[in-house]
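Tip: read the tokens left to right.
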């Protein structure tokens, strides 16, 4: 390891080691707690527990209930890692060098600005992928035995949907790229860190809040007063009433049950009920959307940084 890459390693090694220590600590914790979980549910058929209509043995329900908050804690760590990477790794990556003036020394040692940036960002990006992939896989591994189990953590829980799968890795890369670009633009480390953290958390919150606007839910129609289909592991998006022309009407029109509901439906000429749901297979649909958004933005931020770096006077 020589030249720009050696310098990049020397300057980033503490961040790399901190990330690896975090992964190691989370791995040890998850391994111990998952082993306890598997001991508690050993010998039980967990397929009977799947979905909100599942029927679990009390021992299984207790084990799931006890471990669900801890899985969410690990998921919370996974949610915060991208913003931490953006703030503490991305924002200072170039911004601190400009602020301190040390970039001048690096660029007077026969190192081109492109090579300098490629080495620094390339090492950071590689470590970001490794750390975020390890955490995402760890969350999925711990959660998988009790995935979508009654009273447990379901696939659409942000602590699982946002913190596992490829979107978690793409989000971390996007945060790194955003922090790098913001650090170059702001040229002051602390303000760049604050802006980066706010932007990364804001983007994640927006994707979570507007997630269901990007995908059309499935309509489960039950004629008349026919009992509704069990929801299973699906994500409910609410109920509607159906008229003969196929139009759907708000649930507020008939907030009754039994004979009162039957009379209300007859009065409004409702012929059925519609339950709008997102099936568990939509986990990968939402993952694909988030991943695409993050990767497009990451590419845009890297491109912006590369374009700005062509103007050498911005560094010196």
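Filled-in amino acids:
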């Amino acid at each position: 390891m020589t030249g720009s890459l050696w310098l990049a390693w020397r300057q980033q090694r503490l961040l790399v080691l901190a990330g690896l220590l975090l992964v190691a600590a989370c791995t040890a914790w998850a391994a111990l707690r998952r082993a306890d979980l598997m001991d508690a549910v050993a010998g039980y058929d967990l397929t009977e527990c799947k979905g909100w209509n599942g029927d679990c043995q009390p021992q299984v329900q207790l084990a799931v209930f006890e471990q669900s908050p801890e899985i969410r804690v690990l998921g919370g760590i996974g949610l915060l890692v991208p913003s931490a990477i953006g703030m503490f790794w991305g924002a200072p990556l170039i911004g601190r060098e400009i602020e301190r003036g040390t970039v001048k020394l690096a660029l007077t040692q026969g190192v081109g600005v492109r090579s300098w940036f490629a080495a620094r960002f390339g090492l950071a990006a590689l470590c970001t992928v490794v750390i975020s992939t390890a955490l995402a896989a760890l969350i999925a591994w711990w959660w998988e035995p009790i995935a979508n189990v009654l009273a447990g953590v379901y696939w659409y829980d942000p602590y699982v949907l946002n913190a596992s799968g490829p979107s978690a890795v793409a989000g971390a890369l996007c945060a790194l790229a955003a922090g790098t670009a913001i650090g170059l633009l702001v040229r002051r480390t602390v303000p760049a860190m604050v802006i980066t953290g706010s932007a990364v958390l804001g983007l994640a919150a927006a994707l979570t809040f507007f997630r269901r606007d990007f995908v059309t839910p499935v309509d489960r129609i039950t004629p008349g007063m026919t009992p509704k289909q069990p929801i299973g592991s699906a994500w409910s998006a609410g109920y509607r009433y159906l008229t003969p022309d196929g139009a759907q009407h708000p649930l507020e029109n008939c907030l009754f049950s039994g004979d009162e509901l039957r009379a209300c439906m007859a009065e409004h000429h409702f012929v059925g009920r519609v339950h709008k749901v997102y099936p568990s297979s939509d986990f990968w649909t939402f993952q694909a959307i988030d991943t695409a958004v993050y990767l497009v933005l990451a590419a845009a931020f890297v491109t912006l940084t590369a374009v700005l770096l062509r103007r050498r006077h911005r560094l010196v």
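The first strand starts at residue 218 and ends at 223. The beta strands are 218-223, 235-242, 248-250, 272-278.
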